[in-house]
Amino acid sequence: MKLQSLFRLSVPTLLGALLLTPQASALAGDDVRVLLEILMEKGIITQEEFDQKLKKVREAEEIRTFNESQDIRRANREIDKRAEDERKFKTQFYGQVSSGYYSASNMTSNLNDASGMSDQPKSNNRVGVKFTREIDKDLSAVVTLESNFSLRTGAFGKDAAGYGSATNSGLGGALLDREASVRVISGTYGTLLIGRGPTLQNDLGSAFDARSNWNFGGLKPVARYAGFHSGSGVNRADKLIRYSAPAFNGFTADMAVAFGGTQGLDEPGRSHQFGGRYKNGEFEAAYNHIEARIGSNQAEVNNRVDFLAAKYTWNALTLNAGYVMSRNPSSTSGGSFDTTKTSGKVNADTWFAGGLFRFSPTLSWNGGWYQVKDKTTTSAGMNDLRMLATGLTWSPYKEWDLFVDYARATRENGATGAFTIYDKWVPDTSIGAASGGYSESTRNQSGISVGAQYKF
After folding, report:
1. Which of 82, 253, 344, 364 has a 20 to 30 A CA-CA distance from 243?
2. Nearest of 119, 215, 170, 176 to residue 407 by alpha carbon
3. Is 427 within 8 Å of 112 (Cβ atoms)?
4. How many alpha carbons lie under 13 Å from residue 158 in its C-beta half-sphere?
5. Least confident window among 20-24, 178-182, 276-280
6. Is the pLDDT of residue 388 over 70?
């Protein structure tokens, strides 16, 4: 009897210990049932005790299984949350660089021929980083920081590639000269940009030029000459607020304002733009109007632009054409062409046209014709300009373009306005007092450019 009583007292303790051990999951099933049956056969426990204890074991097993499943769910939820957070926040480093060899005539005010290693003969060199945060399925915020740089000298910042040294020294220098902005992007409501960044005019110059607004022999040098390209309120602007509406029946509206910087006054230096793009199948057209005050102390509009362009694609061929009317309302004479470097702010009418033909997915030809009509009363057509440019581009890889280009600009006899076929360029041969400085001159210019562009 004493032994039986001892077993009766020990069974609850034994079962409790089994259920609290890591091996409980293995014993809580058939093994525990076998143990209880043996105890009942020996008379140590009754049928009623057998049923009660087996019920408790099963309940404990159910609780343990439930707790384990809850732990797994919590762990999975934490893993999913971390993955979702990583998906919503992205960091992207990117950039592009182009370089090669160029040779051109009459490239300075001293009419020097220039040649050597080129920097950004195609699109501007750049390096940047984007931080993207998805707020919800329809809304994201993107911070963009982007700067120009020189492959020749390692200079970094404003005009670094063109001049070989950055013009961002001194108080408030623009190291992030290309962009320092935040965008709020919604598929339903459009995109809002705040900070320093590109305008609609910047987008249109590349989209509607057969030579993609390149620095060497593209629309950009012509546009800077006539006044519809500038990093100070035309193509890019400080203190910019830009809104791009979502597409509606193929039309996208765009408007922007860039605030001035004179203390106590926001009118001097302020500019605004409005326009849009329309796309229907292979046809696309665009218009943009600009009212700019070039110069932080400029109180009146001195650069008014109306830009109109279109293009159409037939299979491998894309043709484009455009007209630009630029005016200087602050001057009764329509302004005057700068004799040292291209700077716009003049009355001029510009026509341009061109084509792009794709021989294959990797090989293409481009050609552009550009004409500027001088509408100022001071020079009376003396600063008319015509430029032809053409080139071949081979893209053996998605990131690489290899190119060869030729450009020729024809000037009027007695022209006074400075122009260059290679925008924002100071030749290495121009260093020194007798060099002539900028690549602009008032004579005919022609040149070739051979090189490569890499995007990363």
Report:
1. 344
2. 215
3. yes
4. 15
5. 20-24
6. yes
